[in-house]
Design goal:
The structure is a homodimer. Chain A is of the alpha+beta class. Chain A has one domain: 2-Layer Sandwich (Ribosomal Protein S8, Chain: A, domain 1), CATH 3.30.1370.60. Helix content of chain A is 41%, strand content 19%. In chain A, β6 and β7 form a beta hairpin.
């Protein structure tokens, strides 16, 4: 595949210009572009510039407010609520970080409910940002129905990612971000685009039978990881990121979306914990470092997310590379 | 196997007497017996009277304080901390329920850190109790190292259960309680006791190779559900139920225990959410009922925990049955 190399700043500028050309204001375009380019630097293509055409589609159809002005405020001593004003989620998330960190440090534990947004779900970025405030952070979110429930054979759950981060003494936080499906939808989309087969067990076709064809899986359903246990976690994520905060569950997102190809409307729940406020008399960071060290003393183990951190380190030239077809598409849309 | 039938009240009394005879005061014995007998009524044998000999062993060795007087207090506006006074967990959990529910209703979200207890981990009972206050509830806890990390082949994580409950409009809450291992340790113990083989994929022997022999698995390691994704959740649970609150991680529990056969010292984290405090303008219970209804409209699906609720309903004679060998053992220990 022909690739185009881009300096990080140039990639950010290209994406920003494209989004502004399609109806975003600079604040929204900048926040979205920054999130995508950081995903590219982490070599997580499925959350990178690959998403630009979808954003543009959602702006063009009028579904999403490109000039959204998300507003945050407390609704209970431990709970903040963000009204996303019908925009894409990155600006809302950017504006939520500091108030949530402050609330967690005051309360010991605090939650942020993000509503009325169209979501880009690179959740690891959000929990990582909170962990840089020396907090533990959990984020859950749902999207269009694509995952079959345990025992069922039609899409019902979103891929329902859960992300969690914990501060490290030296270097960036430990952070994982994993779909409740065996594989993320973005990976299936990319396999379909590139004409790759997928392993058995990832999804079923529209007839309910297992298949390796990503196009059939996109018409059928993904499967939850770990069978009924993963499905139970998916249900918990729907309840916390939709029923708890009054946002759309996956099945409602599927029914309410205009199918313009962009992200669907949905919410997100973030929970932040301040380890210094749990009456923990010992050095909590020493304790968790000992846990990580002991885990890594077993041959063959690694910490969740460490491939992403290694990728990030390997982008020292501040340069990313994207398929030429995608580059041309973005330029054309600009 | 010869079984003995017992009325629920008689089972509770038998277990209470046995625990008192071995050094518990009435408050602790009653709370433990009640938890075990409710597990028996749910036909969850591995959290039932099966545990009595382990409790007695831990009392006899002097490891656990049978007359513990657990005390709870706030350590931050949203965080309660329970000092378990070196006792078994049931009395601490009983005393924590009302204060945690009250804190969640005031704060919107609240946490309870339970420390210095020896744990019985029937977590569904605790989250179910909180959900009866019209709260969503999450509980995590770790125990002795028995699960190999992804890529590793020696025990490192506890079975690291996660339980979650959500209120229903009619009837008992939806509640799941699942180990991060493919199977709970209690199931392996019971298979070993009864001489049953287990399916491949549940565990590895001391040589690191897959095995179906529960005795070899008990000497080797259990495996996490869903591979690296389940292992990541296990790591999160260790961090939240140990590093966050200053209690022992699984590997520390293994190293610090006197191996008397009873439960090990460990902590637990409970988080409760009040759905009326998230600025959710709609009827949150209507919303979640619609989610459950839609899920169940797919053939072959069921809600997590519904087998347990069905079992509970099928105990209408208020009578349980336990193996005669266990009954005789308890009587002998009394």
């Amino acid at each position: 595949m022909t690739k185009v190399a881009l300096a990080l700043d140039d990639a950010r500028e290209l994406a920003t210009r494209c989004l502004v050309a399609n109806g975003c204001d600079k604040a929204n375009a900048g926040a979205i572009a920054d999130s995508m380019v950081r995903a590219e630097a982490d070599i997580c293509e499925s959350h990178g510039l690959f998403r630009v055409p979808g954003y543009v589609a959602a702006l063009s159809s009028g579904k999403v407010n490109g000039k959204a002005d998300p507003k945050i405020g407390p609704v209970a001593p431990g709970v903040l609520r963000m009204d996303g004003d019908g925009g894409f989620s990155p600006l809302a998330l950017e504006r939520g970080e500091e108030p949530l960190a402050a609330a967690a440090k005051e309360q010991g534990i605090a939650a942020l409910a993000i509503t009325d947004t169209y979501h880009v779900s690179a959740l690891w970025q959000e929990v990582e940002a909170l962990a840089k405030h020396n907090l533990a952070a959990l984020a859950v979110h749902t999207s269009k129905a694509v995952v079959a429930p345990a025992g069922g054979n039609k899409p019902f759950f979103g891929t329902d990612p859960m992300a969690f981060a914990w501060p490290r003494r030296d270097g960036p936080p430990m952070a994982f971000d994993q779909a409740t499906s065996v594989r993320a939808k973005g990976e299936v989309l990319i396999a379909a685009r590139d004409g790759h087969e997928m392993a058995l067990g990832i999804g079923i076709g529209p007839d309910g039978n297992p298949t390796t064809d990503p196009n059939l899986i996109l018409k059928g359903a993904l499967l939850p990881f770990g069978g009924y246990k993963g499905a139970a976690i998916g249900l918990m994520i729907e309840l916390l990121s939709a029923s708890l905060i009054g946002e759309w569950c996956a099945f409602e997102q599927s029914e309410g979306d205009n199918n313009d190809g962009g992200p669907t409307r949905g919410g997100e729940l973030l929970v932040a914990f301040d380890p210094t406020k749990f009456g923990n008399g010992e050095d909590w960071l020493d304790h968790s470092e000992a846990l990580f060290e002991r885990l890594l003393s077993q041959d063959g183990t690694r910490l969740p997310g460490d491939r992403r951190l290694a990728n990030r380190k390997r982008t020292p030239t501040e340069e990313i590379s994207i398929p030429k077809s995608l580059y041309d598409n973005i330029v054309e849309l600009t």
